[in-house]
Write a structure and sequence with these properties.
This protein is an alpha+beta fold and about 90 residues long. It has 2 domains: about 40 residues, no CATH class; about 50 residues, HU Protein, Chain A (Irregular), CATH 4.10.520. It has 3 helices and 5 strands. Strands 1-2-5 form a 3-stranded antiparallel sheet. Strands 3-4 form a two-stranded antiparallel sheet. The radius of gyration is 19 Å and the shape is elongated.
Length: about 90
């Protein structure tokens, strides 16, 4: 399902126009992005939790060359579905 079909289906369920639904989705994703950039956890009831986790700096070894490389620390986005969503799937 692509974004256009998703917005059309959502607008039918909610009873809003496609334009209004598109604006609502843009607002939702912007707010979700802002909260995650601040490294906050975002919980959506009956859906799940979005969380930013810090991965520490580590050393890896290339198996073919045996060369050691340093991987810098980074932030990673994780999603944990709610039990209600897990049961439906």
């Amino acid at each position: 399902m692509n974004n256009k079909i998703f917005i059309a289906e959502l607008s039918k369920r909610v009873g809003c126009s496609v334009k209004e639904t598109t604006e609502l989705m843009a607002g939702l994703t912007a707010e979700l992005t802002d909260r995650l950039e601040e490294e906050n956890t975002v919980s959506i009831s009956s859906f799940g939790n979005f969380e930013v986790k810090k991965k520490l700096e580590r050393v890896v070894i290339n198996p073919s060359t045996k060369q050691r490389m340093l991987v810098p620390p980074k932030l990673s986005l994780t999603f944990k579905p709610s039990t209600i969503l897990k049961e439906k799937l």
